[in-house]
Amino acid sequence: MKVILLGAPASGKGTLTAVILQDMGAIHLSTGNILRDNIKDNTPLGIKAKTYMNAGKLVPDELVIDLVRDTLEKIDKSSNIVFDGFPRTVKQADALDEILKELDIKLDGVFDLNVPREVLYDRMMGRRTCPKCNKAYHIKTLKPKVEGICDDCNVPLEIRADQTDEVFNERMRVYDEQTKPLITYYKEKGLLYELDFFERINDVYKQMKEKLGI
Length: 214
Ligand code: AMP
Prior knowledge:
Elements: E1 2-6, H1 13-24, E2 27-30, H2 31-40, H3 44-54, H4 61-74, E3 81-84, H5 90-102, E4 109-113, H6 117-125, E5 127-129, E6 136-138, H7 165-179, H8 181-188, E7 192-195, H9 201-212
Parallel strand pairs: 1-3, 1-4, 2-3, 4-7
Antiparallel strand pairs: 5-6
Helix pairs in contact: 1-9, 2-3, 4-5
The structure holds adenosine monophosphate (AMP).
């Protein structure tokens, strides 16, 4: 299964991926996670990406496209793959198309997660992340066993630098302007599936499996 998850920031792409990984195993290709790891390690890519990310802007297309190409060239092509947060612009989608053709990888579907904007806001602000394994928690809906501590790594959870009102508004503006056009882009290719909003992620996953016929 090779799928792309589309959806606004905090629409649940990462959480849905975690469910897929647990149920059937997959390579989780999250450009956001890779970029954050690069920032943590202070790599040249991380240094370039940091200013854009902290301001809620998109990192330049060339940087993320190269990063995705490098990752895809190294993986076992028969694995399940979940693209989470990539592509985010038409230019990235065109590049992904080319890379997938070169590597003879076929997409099974592109899933758009529909989530009301006020839910996105609550989710984004209550989010806590493990700096070690990137696992996502929420102060109300997805609490760790011990408050503020990662269940798996036993380290304090962090608030991401991009969790502010200003950055939230900017990320929504960028999403509407640059990423939303991908809905039409993939609809025209006959690959798009809409996922309705459910509070429980397992219900979203059930809907996704039904649409894929698995
Ligand atoms: P995410 O964790 O997917 O919400 O991404 C966090 C931030 O990383 C975004 O707000 C962007 O600044 C950057 N980013 C992640 N993926 C991409 C992408 N495909 N294109 C451009 N910037 C990205």
